[in-house]
Amino acid sequence: MHRLNGLKRIAVVMMAGILLSISAAAISGSMVVEGSKAAGMKDCVAPTMDMRRNHMDYLKHQRDEVVHQGDRSDKFALADCVSCHASKDKQGHPVPVNAKDQFCDSCHDYTAVNITCFQCHRKVPEEK
Ligand code: HEC
Ligand code: HEC
Ligand code: HEC
User: Would you call 91 helix, strand, or coil by DSSP?
Assistant: First the structure.
């Protein structure tokens, strides 16, 4: 009986350890895509944790300001998200930022967000 309790204790401690390391990875792991401009940079247009949590509100706010007030002075332009976060394929062609496993899809896939923004907005950086 004593021995069983001991084993149970160990199992519980191990489970807790596994859960902790999973959530730590979820918090510290960056979703930034290899081959994108962002991959070589330290910061987003706002602190990463803030962007992670609030980018949807910033984007909607920015859209409203542009569409209703014609004010483009803000830093949350969708074209900028795309130009910094889109990666390139092996041939050097830009990959749509909302394609499967690309940046804008990486979290939305499992949060079940399906954004329709790119029906109208460019999903690859503007050619220079
Ligand atoms: C000039 C480059 C640049 C631009 C423009 C930019 N980002 Fe970022 N973004 C980054 C970098 C670099 C990081 C990662 C920082 C880090 O790893 O801490 C990041 C991180 C993020 C994250 C968090 C990712 C994670 O791993 O949790 C989100 C969400 C995000 N950006 C969304 C956006 C959106 C939306 C826009 C447009 C409004 C945008 N970014 C514009 C460079 C950029
Ligand atoms: C039916 C077409 C359409 C769809 C869908 C759409 N937009 Fe837009 N969006 C526009 C147009 C048109 C403008 C105004 C363009 C301009 O004046 O530069 C605009 C402007 C914006 C702007 C401000 C300008 C810029 O480039 O930053 C943001 C931000 C924006 N939209 C974000 C979004 C987001 C986020 C979504 C998805 C949730 C979205 N839009 C979906 C058509 C669309
Ligand atoms: C680090 C994870 C992550 C990344 C990367 C990310 N998003 Fe999101 N996004 C989320 C989460 C979480 C939500 C909110 C889901 C909810 O509200 O239930 C969201 C919601 C949104 C919404 C609002 C959708 C709606 O219908 O209200 C827009 C717009 C959006 N994201 C745009 C973008 C764009 C554009 C990019 C790429 C530049 C991007 N996101 C990258 C996690 C992310």
Answer: coil
Q: pLDDT, tens digit, for every residue of 48-81?
A: 999 999 999 999 999 999 999 888 878 899 999 9
Q: How far is CA 31 from CA 2, 12, 26, in A?
A: 46, 31, 10
Its pTM stands at: 0.85
Residue 100 carries which side chain, given as an amino acid letter? K
Atom 14 in ligand 2: which residue has the minimum CA distance?
67
The phi and psi torsions of 65 (rounded to 5 degrees) equal -65, -40
Ligand 2 centre and the CA of 16: distance in Å?
A: 44
Residues 92-105: tens digit of each pLDDT: 999 999 998 899 99
CA distances to 12, 19, 83, 86, 95 from 54, in Å: 35, 25, 19, 20, 25
Atom number in ligand 3 closest to CA 31: 5
